[in-house]
Amino acid sequence: MIIFGTKGYLYTLAMITLVCGRCGNPAAHSLKKRVTKFSLFFVPLFPINTKYVTQCTFCGAAQQLSKEQAEQLQASAQQPHQQPQYGQPAVHDHQHPTA
């Protein structure tokens, strides 16, 4: 007897602040990756389906994304913010004229 089937895995890739398309609130959205893998004798062997989704943490609305869109969102979430932190001096790239 051969036992085979599929199993789903859910990975949270990032937490991003976006404006929700359903509720209109600027809220945190989780960027998730759903992978369905083929298994043989309860051992996952290879992925057969991969989907990317953002989910609003305020209203729970989910939106499916392409792989390219998900990669762009994940890259933007990993970039450091360009604004100076509170209490830190801002860095200016100008020179003062010498007299």
From TrEMBL:
<feature type="domain" description="Zinc-ribbon 15">
    <location>
        <begin position="19"/>
        <end position="67"/>
    </location>
</feature>
<protein>
    <submittedName>
        <fullName>Zinc-ribbon family protein</fullName>
    </submittedName>
</protein>
<dbReference type="InterPro" id="IPR031493">
    <property type="entry name" value="Zinc_ribbon_15"/>
</dbReference>
<feature type="region of interest" description="Disordered">
    <location>
        <begin position="70"/>
        <end position="99"/>
    </location>
</feature>
<feature type="compositionally biased region" description="Low complexity">
    <location>
        <begin position="71"/>
        <end position="90"/>
    </location>
</feature>
<dbReference type="Pfam" id="PF17032">
    <property type="entry name" value="Zn_ribbon_15"/>
</dbReference>
